[in-house]
Design a protein that fits this description.
single chain; Pantoate--beta-alanine Ligase, Chain: A,domain 2; three-stranded antiparallel β-sheet; binds pantoate
Length: 283
């Protein structure tokens, strides 16, 4: 496995391949990331994982400075998953000057849910992903593939829309969320949880499951389901941002007439102590 830190070296190395498959990450990798790498492997002739903690997608009060940088351990894991190339640029390499050109995603998709609670987040994500696509795919002659996790449900939708509207010749694949045996979605931020918080953390997916089960049983009063789930978590000491049922195709609230057709997703974000967790379930 080749570890590359600069754009010119990446482009020179990738010039010998036709079909790169990219898994963008911010490092601090867990089995969910490695599953994405394994998924990417048969989709191209070279599998590239990027590791870059992207300052642009963090608000000033968020965890950019403390986000774990674990390059050596990450590279060992990636190698064991069959990754061919790790692209791990420094901030100076990737943003040699302030990145003042940005990709601005549409508010109907990017200013709701995560975008509402993390203003500017999806602008930061789209900008870095657009730049990563340019870095990895510029020399490619054939199919280009990028794989994202479904745990970041809204993120993969925003990126799909970006690719579609810019007519980028890249196909976006998504990998299912991996869960710990108790049901907690794997996340790099789970490492922030204390032992007590880790035991409690599964309640987020339980709350989403409770909503999903009620919908499957024909419950129509979505507002009450959402409110009950928010109350349950709040009583347990969480600070929920949202627990909500949305249409899968546009993440808008379902209208009474068109839900129940199997095209819904329940999404949640909540803070437990200092750690903000997100999760979702397709219904
Ligand atoms: O999901 C992530 O880890 C990040 O948002 C991504 C897609 C690597 C962009 O920095």
């Amino acid at each position: 496995m080749k570890i590359i830190h600069t754009l010119p070296e990446l482009r020179t190395h990738l010039a010998q391949f036709k079909h790169p498959a990219l898994v963008p990450t911010m490092g601090n990798l867990h089995d969910g990331h490695l599953a994405l790498v394994r998924q990417a492997k048969p989709l191209g002739d070279v599998t590239v994982a990027s590791i870059f903690v992207n300052r642009l997608q963090f608000a000033p009060h968020e965890d950019f400075d403390t986000y774990p940088r674990t390059l050596q351990a990450d590279c060992a894991k990636l190698e064991s998953a069959g990754c061919d190339v790790v692209f791990a640029p420094s901030e100076k390499e990737f943003y040699p000057e302030p990145q003042t050109f940005k990709v601005q995603p549409p508010p109907d998709l990017a200013d709701i849910l995560e975008g509402h609670f993390r203003p500017g987040f999806f602008t930061g994500v789209c900008t870095v992903v657009f730049k990563l696509f340019n870095a990895v795919f510029s020399e490619a002659q054939g199919s280009r593939v990028a794989v994202f996790g479904k745990k970041d449900y809204q993120q993969q939708m925003v990126i799909r829309r970006m690719v579609q509207q810019f007519a980028l010749p890249i196909s976006i694949h998504t990998g299912d969320t991996l869960r710990a045996p108790d049901g907690l979605a794997l996340s790099s931020r789970n490492g922030y949880l204390s032992a007590d918080e880790r035991a409690e953390a599964v309640q987020l997916s339980r709350a989403l499951n409770a909503i999903a089960d009620a919908l499957r049983q024909g419950e129509q009063d979505i507002a009450s389901l959402e409110a009950r789930a928010m109350q349950t978590l709040t009583k347990r000491g969480w600070q929920p941002d949202y627990l909500t049922v949305r249409r899968r195709h546009d993440l808008q609230a379902p209208q009474a007439a068109n839900f129940g057709g199997g095209a819904l997703v329940v999404l949640g974000a909540a803070r437990l102590g200092k750690t903000r967790l997100i999760d979702n379930l397709e219904v």
